[in-house]
Amino acid sequence: xxxxxxxxxxxxxxxxxxxxxxxxxxxxxxxxxxxxxxxxxxxxxxxxxxxxxxxxxxxxxxxxxxxxxxxxxxxxxxxxxxxxxxxxxxxxxxxxxxxxxx
Amino acid sequence: xxxxxxxxxxxxxxxxxxxxxxxxxxxxxxxxxxxxxxxxxxxxxxxxxxxxxxxxxxxxxxxxxxxxxxxxxxxxxxxxxxxxxxxxxxxxxxxxxxxxxxxxxxxxxxxxxxxxxxxxxxxxxxxxxxxxxxxxxxxxxxxxxxxxxxxxxxxxxxxxxxxxxx
Amino acid sequence: xxxxxxxxxxxxxxxxxxxxxxxxxxxxxxxxxxxxxxxxxxxxxxxxxxxxxxxxxxxxxxxxxxxxxxxxxxxxxxxxxxxxxxxxxxxxxxxxxxxxxxxxxxxxxxxxxxxxxxxxxxxxxxxxxxxxxxxxxxxxxxxxxxxxxxxxxxxxxxxxxxxxxxxxxxxxxxxxxxxxxxxxxxxxxxxxxxxxxxxxxxxxxxxxxxxxxxxxxxxxxxxxxxxxxxxxxxxxxxxxxxxxxxxxxxxxxxxxxxxxxxxxxxxxxxxxxxxxxxxxxxxxxxxxxxxxxxxxxxxxxxxxxxxxxxxxxxxxxxxxxxxxxxxxxxxxxxxxxxxxxxxxxxxxxxxxxxxxxxxxxxxxxxxxxxxxxxxxxxxxxxxxxxxxxxxxxxxxxxxxxxxxxxxxxxxxxxxxxxxxxxxxxxxxxxxxxxxxxxxxxxxxxxxxxxxxxxxxxxxxxxxxxxxxxxxxxxxxxxxxxxxxxxxxxxxxxxxxxxxxxxxxxxxxxxxxxxxxxxxxxxxxxxxxxxxxxxxxxxxxxxxxxxxxxxxxxxxxxxxxxxxxxxxxxxxxxxxxxxxxxxxxxxxxxxxxxxxxxxxxxxxxxxxxxxxxxxxxxxxxx
Lengths: 102, 166, 621
Known about the structure:
The complex is a heterotrimer of chains A (102), B (166) and C (621). Chain A is an all-alpha fold and 102 residues long. Chain A has helices at residues 4-24, 28-53, 59-89. Chain B has helices spanning 2-23, 27-48, 51-76, 91-111, 126-136, 138-159. The longest helix of chain B has 26 residues, at 51-76. Chain C is built from 25 helices and four strands. In chain C, the strands form two sheets. Chain C has a two-stranded antiparallel sheet with strand order 1-2. In chain C, strands 3-4 form a two-stranded antiparallel ribbon. In chain C, helix 2 (27-54) packs parallel to helix 4 (112-131), helix 3 packs antiparallel against helix 10 and helix 14 packs across helix 17. The longest helix of chain C has 49 residues, at 545-593. Chain C is globular, with a radius of gyration of 30 Å. At the A-B interface, helix 1, helix 2 and helix 3 of A face helix 1, helix 2, helix 3, helix 4 and helix 5 of B.
């Protein structure tokens, strides 16, 4: 039998890895992928709580559906912005893009 | 017991491929490993008993988002320069922050008194979800559709070549 | 009748507003409006005086004005009593004649309309000052006459001397006004009323400690010293002669400078309680009279002689008030207004013709300017206190008052000053009208004495009328004494016949000496100047008071202000600059955080979450 804490610790680990990716990836696409990891960890925790505490209650799963959709929209816009930046600056490495430096 | 072994196997695969996603030198490999991660998340959904979500995960994430990301990689990155360093200088502090966040989360999880209940065996069919969605959540659903439409149009306008641009 | 009193100051104000706003281009219209306004004021004030003679008393009208503090209502109003009704007539008369006279004197001046506008403003302010029923309102008009004086001294503002003189007049009187203001503040705090009648009532009940009253009286006297040019604040009045001569006659001889004396007379109930303050007034007045009279002996500028004479006579008035000869002091103000205005207007007539102020460049004018000469003679005799001219009656009463009060030193000085007065007036008269005829170097070349001519009738008629007044005012001495007095009227039974005779003899002897020196030239004046070279030099340089002040300013004030300036530049500004540059440095430090790198911001985001977690943790514990 899998206890809820095991699943949640997996989620926490997964989330931390995503944070690490967001903070260190130089490539913009890498950052976007790390953000997907963060989204997934959140989804997983929703599903877990839903299944363990409110099995007959579908809100948790519906929420995950919404998150997936929003993540899709997010990724689409993110990639479009990325293409724009790439066309303007010929670069996708965020540590070289500092035109907003104060 | 077998379920538990399966859970641990999938968990290990998930973590390993996630680590791969954030640390692979070749961005293309990272993309592929992201696919593997998403698949294993779908597996976890199955274990948790939400088949519909597992299917959506595979269809939307692996089929849609991952494909999109791989396209973007191919559009922007010359695959020949795969030896370029992929992690920035703030690696040390990033590791610290990640570990601290992990520690905080674990501390919270372990400290919280949670009712030691097992997950329920109630299966939810796609038709249940559909009914629930269209009975109770119609407005958010429609708003979501507008959001997706806006994102679509926005992405087209952003990514379109500007006039006069080669 | 008394309820029309408020019209008196109001008419010149209307004239001021109309001439100032609308008729700035029409000389004749501006002039006529001003003259008619003051003429009607004159008629009204004469009517009021007539009625006051029949039914004397205090008539007060007031309106509530400001209610800042419930315990201290500030009102605007008028107090008509014998004192103010006489002063109204004096001010209106002199204003009227000076305005008429100015039509001739200022003819062709580029600032003609402006001149009349300010004259009307001055008349308004002065009349407002006279009728004020409370100290605060009086202070407001007090400052208004000050600003009019400033504007009119600086009428020819393009001349640097005139511009400087106007500034000097304004700044020096400020020193005195400061005392006046503090006195008002103390009164508002201690007595909680500004109204003269209420103030008198409260003070007479003895509710206010004696020492406090002395302080108030001395501070009020400071204000009077500034306006009435008493030593040591007398230095502005001689310089104020840079203004047009009719202005000198009106403001700096007859009315505004008398405002200080009027203030003391109006608040005499304060002074009379404090013997110390009265003695101070007497001493300052007497010293100023002597001091200015001695300077006037050697001045060459005809207007300056008259200016020092004015200072000296104001000193007499203060002396009169100080020794308790209230009636005499105020009567001297009245007579002085007539004969000093007359003398100044005569001087103006001479200057108008000769175009110089130096008496040694005039000479032999009697042949050409008979009316001016005779009126000047009458004014001079009145000033010198020769029987039976008006000055005799008022001045001798002051000297008598000094004698009766037991201040024999003051009496002696006053008598000596009377000799000075007679001497310098005779000197000016003989030199100007009977001296050797001289050709004068003017800006337009050499002017021969034969071309001098009498002034137009618009100027000579006021002279004649004023001369008439100066001659006959003495017959009202007794009537005046019954009319204006402080406390119960005392019939001065101990009329000393001896003292008027002495003072007349002294004056006539002085005149004789002047005649010998300047007319017969039996004694060389230059030789005397050589013989008494040190006193002569001191007098010529006006006791070096101006030099002393500028020495003080240079060596004390400038050092202090230099130190203050250094402190301001380096410490105050330094502190401000340090704050400014500190913030700037901090800003450029903060600027470093804006790297433009997205991942640095992400570090902030997640690191911030961690930080907040720990902070919350600590707080919850």
